[in-house]
Amino acid sequence: MRDAFDELHRRWRAGEAVALATVVATWRSAPQPPGAAMLVTADGAVTGSVSGGCVEADLYERAREVLAGGTPELIRYGVSDDDAFAVGLTCGGVLEVFVERIEPIGFPQLGTVAGARRSGAPTAVVTCVGADAGDEPGTAPADPAGRLGRRLVLAGERVLGSLGSERLDAAAAADALGLLTAGRSGMLRYGYDGQRRGSGVSLFVAAYTTPPRMIVFGAIDFAAAVTRIGAFLGYRVTVCDARSVFATARRFPEADEVVVDWPHRYLQAELDAGRIDGRTAICVLTHDPKYDVPVLALALRRPMAYVGAMGSRRTHDERRKRLREAGVTVEQLARLASPIGLDLGGRTPEETAVSVAAQIVADRWRGSGRPLAELAGPIHGPGQADRAVAAG
């Protein structure tokens, strides 16, 4: 996507109109993930790819038509289509591609997006790629197709543009923020006024950010389960342990990397290299003070999203004492989730991993961890802990 975006921004600054084809959904063994893009310019130049060559010839002609006529189009390619072999998609996958005309007057926020990408600031572009007539009379605008190509941009604390409805903008912004935080692009579907249902509008969220990191210290069986659920949540997961016999890629196939090093030494090196930020989650599962105290003392002094440590209450009390002796302040110690996880009553490594993930998600969105039935107000809004249902 980077090559296509860079060329898009260059043409945009020059005042040119171009056609942008973006993969918005895939099934089975599709050759490219959502977000892959191909740019076609008025002079016939092509930048980027959506399938590694499978459907580009057909898509090129479609893009030229959209560029000339300006009408956005959502196209599906797959082997089940009558013309699948004609366009060359023989890999067995299915992909949907949204083709739109982009020009400065229709996408004034593109400069903001480009600036955010250069600075590394997380940014999301929400585009309406599908609109139907709705299941009931009066549930859709008079011209549903008029919603196609509308955009909402999340750039830092700003929300720019509109999808056509304040309620739809609010719902899409909240859910797009969740995808952005997880570092994932994907599809959202709502009613035309933001109702959470399948018919109405289909929105594609292009998330421009690096995935958040999860670092799991301690190559134990619980670490394998935490690694799996961390990857499922969209984290780039690292497992680190000083014991080479346990820290192996074979034992942690879902991890992005497995490192053999002392935990505090590895964390310090990552901090020095600038590869740790405020989204990072630290899970210390070592059960050994010579490993966990130095790495926790280091982590608690930095503004990370989550720092948790496994152990019994006796281990927890002893660990707190050692951390205070190591110079960790009371305020810093208050950030430690120990014993790690929420009280779900789980016993197995997998159940424990769910409790850890639930606590990380609750911390991220300021959730209370309580049953939704006990709360009032928007389910997806911030600060669930402040929305308890009044007794009566």
Automatic annotation (TrEMBL):
The record places domain XdhC- CoxI at 12-78
Superkingdom of the source species:
Bacteria
The record's annotation in InterPro entries points to: MoCofactor_Util/Proc (IPR052698), XdhC_CoxI (IPR003777), XdhC_Rossmann_dom (IPR027051)
**Which is an annotated Pfam family here?**
XdhC_CoxI
Instruction: Pinpoint the XdhC Rossmann domain residues.
Output: 214-360
Designated name of the protein: XdhC/CoxI family protein
Q: Which organism is it from?
A: Micromonospora musae
